[in-house]
Design a protein that fits this description.
By secondary structure, this protein is α+β, with helices and mostly antiparallel strands. It has a single domain (2-61, 156-326), classed as Alpha-Beta Complex (paralog of FGE (formylglycine-generating enzyme)). The two termini are 31 Å apart. The longest helix has 17 residues, at 2-18. The protein has 5 helices and 11 strands, in the order H-E-E-E-E-H-E-E-H-H-E-H-E-E-E-E. The strands form 4 sheets. The chain has a 4-stranded mixed beta sheet with strand order 9-8-7-10. The chain has a 3-stranded antiparallel beta sheet with strand order 1-4-11. 16% of the residues lie in helices and 15% in strands. It has helices at residues 2-18, 66-76, 153-163, 170-178, 251-254, and strands at residues 27-30, 33-37, 50-54, 57-60, 102-106, 122-126, 241-247, 284-288, 308-311, 319-320, 324-326.
């Protein structure tokens, strides 16, 4: 399998050279085309499978790192959403003590918990931010090449604008993640660990209480630690979830029942609100790719078709992004 990935990556590099100089360092050419988006065999929000066409574009080989985001902040003085005091009018009924700079961090329970309640392992930590990814006592020491996390959607957009790039749509992201492998379950093929090799940073063991670390990482891994897909893209599965520009809506509601076509721009803002919190009008975008917290017993979302809704104001310890430049 590694030889196949090497061969296809070499072909991708040859294609890059044909297209000329990339618009920025460490970007690869994604040729575009028509593909079958989604899946009928996993989580309901991925169905139904449907044809989508995307145009060619350039994409970052890896997610934006702490070092890259640091340069952006140093150049602009930008303050991320997690580092700001939330506005009370945006969160009706919120307790005053919750309206502080903070972000969401994973905390491993000491014993088995109800998997239907994610509050059993997610904690809102004051002063957690991209600078302090595990809370106020942590830092970025040794994490320069790790993906930046604790970035809300607004933060990712600001970085992309500064870099002269854009964020990908869900369809662009999924097309790129598939690496030209039509119908394959994973970015690299049909087997999760071909020849016993881990191809992504995910959770091994019983989530959320035991991670056996068979892939070598408990939290994020440096970008490029696992093999690239056939387009030369690293970490299109696992490590960190990645923002896309689409407002979240179930695929089935996106598809026009009369003609079978799909709205290529995704859902609309007012349709993306969390129905479990009708009083809070915070839109949700689609995030893709899964993370180091995805495990077979809980979240098999380390696949190109996988998708989840993420409120645009919410940053976490396992969500980052990468950018594109459209051709």
């Amino acid at each position: 399998m590694s030889n196949l990935v090497s061969l296809t990556s070499a072909r991708s590099e040859a294609e890059n050279q044909k297209r000329g100089q990339p618009p920025a360092k460490d970007m690869v050419w994604i040729p575009g085309g028509t593909f079958m988006m989604g899946s009928d065999h996993h989580y309901p929000e991925e169905a139904p499978t449907h044809p989508v066409t995307v145009n060619a574009f350039w994409m970052d080989q890896h997610t934006v790192t702490n070092a890259e985001f640091s340069r952006f902040v140093e150049d602009t003085g930008y303050v991320t959403v997690a580092e700001r005091v939330p506005r009370a009018e945006d969160y009706p009924g919120a307790k005053p003590e919750m309206l502080i700079p903070a972000s969401v961090v994973f905390r491993k329970p000491r014993f088995r918990v109800d998997l239907n309640n994610h509050y059993n392992w997610w904690t809102y930590i004051p002063e957690a931010s991209w600078r302090r990814p595990q809370g106020p006592a942590s830092s970025l020491k040794g994490l320069a090449k790790h993906p930046v996390v604790h970035v809300a959607y607004e933060d990712a957009e600001a970085y992309a604008l500064w870099a002269g790039k854009q964020l990908p749509t869900e369809a662009e992201w999924e097309f790129a993640a598939r690496g030209g492998l039509e119908g394959a379950e994973f970015s690299w093929g049909t087997e999760f660990t071909p020849d016993g090799e881990y191809m992504a940073n995910t959770w091994q063991g019983e989530f959320p209480i035991e991670n056996t670390l068979e892939d070598g990482y408990e939290w994020t891994a440096p970008v490029g630690s696992f093999p690239a897909n056939a387009y030369g893209l690293f970490d299109m599965a696992g490590n960190v979830w990645q923002w896309t520009t689409d407002w979240y809506l179930e695929h089935g509601k996106l598809i026009n029942s009369c003609c079978g076509s799909i709205n290529p721009r995704g859902g609309e803002l007012d349709q993306s609100y969390d129905p479990c919190m009708p009083e809070v009008k915070i839109g949700r975008k689609v995030m893709k790719g899964g993370s180091f917290l995805c495990a077979p017993n809980y979240c098999r979302r380390y696949r190109p078709a996988a998708r989840m809704a993420q409120p645009v104001d919410t940053s976490t310890c396992h969500l980052g992004f990468r950018c594109i430049v459209r051709g």
